[in-house]
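Milestone 3.1: sequence recovery, worked example.
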């Protein structure tokens, strides 16, 4: 099925970790209207080898060059490299699919730049449910949003917030609350863990009013996110338990959400706001 004027859209993948590799495999399998144009990764030789092992034929280029080879740039790279992916994509007026929603909070000037350039930034639903309901409620008045995240200790160990405070989760045998504050501070302190909280904040009442708790829980095997929303249109509570990917910080559903987002850009029917 053609995407625009009979021409398929090319996708550039920034990052070839658990999420990027899963998206690359789906594109290889075939999504009508989309084709993989190029990949960029921090370790060039390793990326070339991973693509070859998977039988995926795509050039590996620099982060700066990626936007030149793609209509859509999917950012699935550590937050520290976010601007290196986002700035060229916005300058080239591309569609930027940003999985590092927390990094977007720290680089919010890029939203204004995208508006000025005519680019688009799309944050997929990721590992969180209910964003459509939150976005709809935000058209009215939202009173409060609270999110509680529980992860196995291995999925949180080494987060900057914990390192700065000398907190180790090794050997933890009971659930421990390790953070209680705003979504903005949580995304800053746990950049590899709570992109879901940043996405929730962007969909609703902002990162400073969205409250976040993070728990390290050795009694669970799945990354669990619960949200509670009070609005003038509805009151709702939702919980999702995500199976971790090969990277314990990321759920398997994150990559699938990116694929669903890409498919929605070219599909004749889109379900959800």
């Amino acid at each position: 099925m053609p995407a625009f004027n009979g021409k398929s859209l090319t996708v550039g993948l920034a990052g070839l970790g658990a999420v990027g590799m899963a998206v690359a495999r789906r594109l290889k399998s075939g999504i009508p209207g989309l084709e993989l144009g190029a990949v960029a990764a921090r370790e060039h030789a390793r990326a070339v080898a991973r693509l070859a092992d998977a039988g995926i034929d795509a050039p590996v280029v620099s982060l700066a060059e990626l936007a030149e080879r793609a209509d859509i740039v999917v950012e699935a790279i550590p937050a520290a490299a976010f601007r290196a992916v986002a700035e060229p994509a916005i300058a080239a007026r591309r569609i930027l699919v940003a999985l590092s929603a927390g990094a977007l909070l720290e680089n919010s000037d890029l939203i204004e730049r995208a508006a000025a350039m005519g680019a688009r930034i799309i944050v997929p639903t990721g590992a969180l449910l209910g964003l459509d309901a939150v976005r709809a409620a935000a058209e009215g008045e939202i009173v409060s949003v609270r999110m509680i995240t529980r992860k196995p200790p291995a999925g949180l160990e080494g987060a900057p917030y914990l390192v700065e405070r000398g907190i180790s989760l090794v050997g933890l045998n009971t659930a421990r609350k390790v953070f209680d504050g705003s979504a903005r501070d949580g995304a800053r302190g746990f950049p590899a863990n709570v992109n879901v909280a940043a996405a929730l904040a962007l969909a609703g009442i902002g990162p400073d009013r969205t409250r976040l708790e993070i728990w390290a829980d050795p009694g669970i095997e799945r990354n669990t996110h619960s949200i509670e929303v009070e609005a003038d249109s509805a009151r709702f509570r939702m919980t999702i338990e995500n199976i971790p990917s090969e990277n314990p910080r990321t759920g398997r559903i994150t990559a699938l959400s990116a694929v669903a987002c890409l498919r929605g850009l070219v599909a004749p029917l889109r379900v959800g706001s």
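Residues 252-266 form the longest helix (15 residues). The mean pLDDT is 92.
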